[in-house]
Amino acid sequence: MRFRMLGPLEVLSGEQSLPLGGVKQRATLGYLLLQANQVVPTSQLLSALWSTDNAPATARKILQNAVWGLRGMLSEHGPAAGAAGELVTRAPGYMIRVDPDRVDLHLFRRRVSEGRARLSAGAQHEAVRLLGEALDLWRGPVLADLVETGTMWPELTAVQNSRLDVLEDYLEAKLRCGEHYAVLGELETTVEAEPLRERSSGLLMLALYRCGRQVDALSVYNRIRATLVEDLGLEPGHELRRLQQAILAQDQTLDLASAPLGTAAPVPAAPAAQPPPAAALPGYRDAAAQFSGHEDRRLLLAAVASPAHRTRSDERQVAVAKWPAQPRGAPVHSRTAVRTAPVAERPHLSVLLVQNRLTPGHNGFRPESMDEDFEHLNAVTRKQIERLGGEPVATIGAVTLGLFRPCSATADDGTRRAQEPGAALRAVRAAAAVRDRLAVPVPQPARPAPPGLTFHASVATGRALVRFQPGDGTAPTVNGALLDLCQALLTVTAPGEIRVCAATRAATVSVVAYGLADGSPSAWRALDLPAEDSPAGGGAI
């Protein structure tokens, strides 16, 4: 008698498929087989068959009838098959006693363990055979017939995810064997079906690169990065970014013949066992480390521009700034061993976007000095943001993002602070200060504003998602609808204009004079602002 779970639930006696009864009886068998040769408490079985608020008064009786029906089926057909499963009562519940080799799930796990062990030993071709045999046992989603009836067990998700892990091991083993052309189709299908799995995308990038398709390999990276940022607010993991950098540099370690074949991390014999360190897959794990599914990640949020609007040089600048390259051979985890979990908050704050545009074709415009000009303009912007109590979070190209949080009522020593301007007013004043600073000639050594410069700024106030890493000194990241609103205001801001949202105006209208922008009550232009050291009057902005 054989039990097949990797697909619709089936029990075979010889080549005959046995009748398994109704949904509850099939579900009882499926749940017991997930934990074969282990006692499953009755309360756990009841929770698996019914939700807490949906269990009938006769639930325990229905379960007992299901167990009785399964025992009859097993006892009737077991002897004819030469090896029967046995469903026994063991306090505090039930257990199905069966030879693991007659359950396809357990046979799958054994083949996987053997295949990974061969991969770890450097026997790539044998690993491909064993991992391929394990994957061939699958006939569809695990317990597919029960899933169709609405069954949703965490154990099913875990088994389904393990298949994806094994598929990645199998494709990696084939890459080690030099079969990069052969795996392209399956890798592309896998990445299309699972767009958030970084290891699959990394393997596809390596396969494409080895097939001479460097541009396509980098496109895969850009695609997964855009998906991660837009859907989850995350940047790709450190390993995937290192692989991208290696492809950009055409690192020789990515070539199949550039390094001796390595080993993969073996499967522990028990969940508590710790696998020994793994050697490097040629070109991939050496350059991009190992995608084990548990790699340390640094959480980043998109700061100013959407991925579609960032240039490749922007991407490289952000990656290098956040993740400086380590010497070859240095352990990837050395910098992150004591890192605490990132903290996420949704505080009420004001965000300021400042864009300093340089217009080509303007009299005196110097293309050869654009990089230095932008460096100077961004430095001026960041300085004014900091001077007014803001935090310059990011600069991409000509755009700088600043965060302004409400000031604490007490100082660090516990004394009461003097009343300070609110976050919205400080953000508007920072925008005005940047514009005034760039417009007023100042003596050297300061750099004068370049010809063809136009200034644009927007301020939005509300709640935003802010993430930061406690103790590491890096700037926080910000995302959410508030930043989108600020970006939308910036795109329609005229040269020299500071445009704000309705919430910013409401918080500052007692000090700042505003006019409607484009006749819309949701967008306002700052017209006049008193000097910073006076409560009223003066100071056109």
UniProtKB/TrEMBL annotation:
* DNA-binding region location: 1-98
Q: Which UniProt keywords apply?
A: DNA-binding, Transcription, Transcription regulation, Two-component regulatory system
Presence of keyword Iron-sulfur: no
Which PROSITE patterns does its entry note? OMPR_PHOB
Q: Which residues cross the membrane?
A: none
What's a Pfam family in this record?
Answer: BTAD
Q: Where is the OmpR/PhoB-type domain?
A: 1-98
Map out region (Disordered) in residue numbers: 312-337
Q: What family is reported?
A: Belongs to the AfsR/DnrI/RedD regulatory family.
Protein name as annotated: AfsR/SARP family transcriptional regulator
Give the organism the record lists.
Answer: Streptomyces violaceolatus
